[in-house]
Amino acid sequence: MALPDLDDLIAEVDRRCDTAHRPGGQEQPDWLALLTVAAQLAGQMQALADDLVEDYVEHCRMHGSSWTDIGAALGVTRQAVQQRFHAPHKRYSPETMTDDLRQAMVHVKQAAVQHRNNYIGTEHLLWGLTAEDNSATQLLQTAGVSSKTIHRSVGTRLSMGASQAAERIAWTPYARKAIAIAEARSEQNGSDRIDCDDLLIGLAQVGRGVAANVLTEAGFHPAALNATTADTHSSQNG
Fold this sequence. Notes:
Strand content: under 5%
Shape: globular
Distance between the termini: 49 Å
Largest sheet: 2 strands, parallel
Helix content: 55-70%
Order of helices and strands: HHHHHEHHHEHHHH
């Protein structure tokens, strides 16, 4: 994969901010508008770069690498890498979830433990969501996708690990992003608890990870989810 060079990035800024260029080229472009777009693009690239490094840091930790080794790989001290990556992540207690989602989480952890994984990835979450009937499986059915097919498909992606410490299970970055999206959506819908369909939408909208791949292959897309969910909530509120 070829990384963009400076000319590519400048062209992208121009494309995103074509209104900043004066018609006929007789006047100077709106440099402040272009600067604003350039800063936004740089921020998006930085966030993506941070996600990339964080993902590999977390996998290194899952597979036994010390903070000292990780710091050496990144060219910084152990203290610096711990300060950057060891910040506590938001914890989602059972009180923030519906009864159905709490039941799904039982299946999620069982999948991780049975496969001796010391992490919960998007594949575990999708497995748990499709283990029993709930609002997520109903949403899949409404979109014309078989929850049983999804369950079988994601089951083939669960790999056997070597962990003996189920109490040390940690969520992967993509899994955390999925539930953060789910929480935001539940709040938008006026609920103080996250439901199974919220988390299903979160898994699809993350756009990366095993669950997103399985959903995409099944023809289940975030845009379709948004439209379906909007219709569902409109009918419920009506």
